[in-house]
């Protein structure tokens, strides 16, 4: 579950913050089924908006790409988000009587606003790699969380959520994103990226995005 060579380095640099994110109380509640339904729905409505802004960030990555391969990988992710991943949110919320129009019009929580605009700003003020350091946290973190929760296999009403991220299709996406980041880093920073003057800032971006993920889970737990 290392998803390439660069991600494990960024994850190690994030230290305890990474565990705060991937082993958060919200995650434990998903795994053992103790997460209250209203907390899950509050999270899901916000996560719909989150993914809308994430689609915008991956679309920004298309414009920041330097090779046709990078462009294709990022454009495919925009498509996968809008036409694939959002379906879980749309269908689960539809079953609760919440339409997609209501989701789109929902009021954004400050934690959601902070995280999504932080990622978009990483791309606007930086280059493709800055954007990837901010985007990697969410994509690969959920890959790790999904795999761990599926292995624990507790009795939980959130099994759909877990299988979405533990499943072969999503895990394949994670490996592709890991490979995209490895190639993008080698292209821009060479074979010794850790000695690049840019390296500390990339690690800092990754850690900040991880902190914002911790706050996003916290938002789900607090009414
Ligand atoms: C707060 C929050 N963080 C991470 C993800 C996971 N995620 C973000 S983008 C993406 C798909 C990229 O192909 C996935 C799985 C989420 N849904 N919500």
UniProtKB/TrEMBL annotation:
Catalytic activity: 4-amino-5-aminomethyl-2-methylpyrimidine + H2O = 4-amino-5-hydroxymethyl-2-methylpyrimidine + NH4(+); thiamine + H2O = 5-(2-hydroxyethyl)-4-methylthiazole + 4-amino-5-hydroxymethyl-2-methylpyrimidine + H(+)
InterPro entries: Haem_Oase-like_multi-hlx (IPR016084), Thiaminase-2/PQQC (IPR004305), Thiaminase_II (IPR027574), Thiamine_Salvage_TenA (IPR050967)
Pathway: Cofactor biosynthesis; thiamine diphosphate biosynthesis
GO CC annotation: cytosol
Residues covered by the Thiaminase-2/PQQC domain: 14-221
GO molecular-function terms, A-Z: thiaminase activity
EC numbers: 3.5.99.2
Keyword annotations from UniProtKB, A to Z: Hydrolase, Thiamine biosynthesis
Family: Belongs to the TenA family.
NCBIfam families for this protein: salvage_TenA
Protein name (database record): Aminopyrimidine aminohydrolase
């Amino acid at each position: 579950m290392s998803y390439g060579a660069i991600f494990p380095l960024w994850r190690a640099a994030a230290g305890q913050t990474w565990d705060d994110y991937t082993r958060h109380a919200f995650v434990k509640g998903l795994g053992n089924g103790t997460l209250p339904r209203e907390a899950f729905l509050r999270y899901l409505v916000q996560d719909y908006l989150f993914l809308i802004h994430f689609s915008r960030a991956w679309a920004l990555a298309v414009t920041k790409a330097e090779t046709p391969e990078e462009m294709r990988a990022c454009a495919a992710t925009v498509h996968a988000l809008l036409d694939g991943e959002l379906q879980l949110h749309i269908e689960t919320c539809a079953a609760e009587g919440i339409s997609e129009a209501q989701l789109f019009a929902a009021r954004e929580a400050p934690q959601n606003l902070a995280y999504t605009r932080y990622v978009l700003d990483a791309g606007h003020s930086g280059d493709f790699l800055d954007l990837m350091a901010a985007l990697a946290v969410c994509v690969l973190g959920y890959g790790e969380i999904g795999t761990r929760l599926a292995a624990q296999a507790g009795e939980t009403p959130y099994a759909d959520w877990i299988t979405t991220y533990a499943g072969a299709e999503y895990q394949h996406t994670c490996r592709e994103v890991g490979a995209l980041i490895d190639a993008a880093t080698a292209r821009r920073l060479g074979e010794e990226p850790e000695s690049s003057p840019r390296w500390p800032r990339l690690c800092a971006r990754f850690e900040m995005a991880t902190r914002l993920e911790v706050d996003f889970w916290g938002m789900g737990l607090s009414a």
